[in-house]
Amino acid sequence: SQLPLNVSDPVVSYINFFSSPRGKRIMAYGLRRSGRYRQMILRILREEGVPEELIYLAQAESGFAPRAMSRARCVGVWQFAAFRGKEYGLNQTPVMDERMDPEKATRAAAHHLHDLYNHFGDWYLAMAAYNCGPGCVDHAIQRTGYADFWTLRRWNVLPKETANYVPAILAMTIIGKNAKAYGLDDLEMETPLEYDTIELESATH
């Protein structure tokens, strides 16, 4: 794995959850949908020099649903907030929202994750910052003096959602990379999306 896979107690707890009937349904749903975008996402992650295993971040964020919208109005496969999307070139107008474009959003997410890794020097902290924002993680590091995700989690200085976000993605990654061992190797994957790109001269539904 290009992403370090530390099997700590919180990760084991999530592995157990995703092995339960309810958790297995969640995993299976995301893995089936990933078939539509998997080849494109892995290609872009490779091109941008980030670990391919971060595809499971998209599974945790949206289950690979391009039109997914959270209560915080984050949108798309990678759940970009409006301001963060604009920061990474995802334009939003009354007739268009590029956060819903799977390819453009994947490229933007890869850039964002790369920037977060360059800032923190650690993929776990980069993933945490993707969830709660780099300022939140910076503040937690300044409060404790530790630039280590597990220490910040243990000291309860990260939001609860973020503290659980990284272990959940690591568990998804471990299960996804060992699908047969978890009884998820016989899923019928969605057909990969085939498409061309054209340039429009006016707004079109």
List the helices and strands and how they pair.
Layout: H1 9-19, H2 21-47, H3 55-62, H4 82-87, E1 92-93, E2 96-97, H5 102-120, H6 123-132, H7 134-144, H8 149-154, H9 160-177
Antiparallel strand pairs: 1-2
Helix pairs in contact: 1-2, 1-9, 2-3, 2-5, 3-9, 5-6, 6-7, 6-9
Biggest sheet statistics: 2 strands, antiparallel
Query: Oligomer, anyone?
Result: single chain
Terminal-residue CA separation: 41 Å
Averaged pLDDT, please?
Answer: 95
The gyration radius over C-alpha positions equals 17 Å
Q: Helicity level, as a percent range?
A: 55-70%
- Global structural class: mainly alpha
Number of DSSP strands? Answer: 2
Strand content: under 5%
Order of helices and strands: HHHHEEHHHHH
The DSSP helix count reads 9
Account of the protein in words:
The protein has 205 residues and is an all-alpha fold. Helix content is 57%, strand content 2%. The protein is built from 9 helices and 2 strands; from the N terminus they run ααααββααααα. It has helices at 9-19, 21-47, 55-62, 82-87, 102-120, 123-132, 134-144, 149-154, 160-177; strands at 92-93, 96-97.
What's the quick description here?
This protein is mainly α and 205 residues long. Helix content is 57%, strand content 2%.
Record keyword descriptors for this entry:
single chain, 2 strands, mainly alpha, 9 helices, two-stranded antiparallel sheet, 205 residues, 57% helix
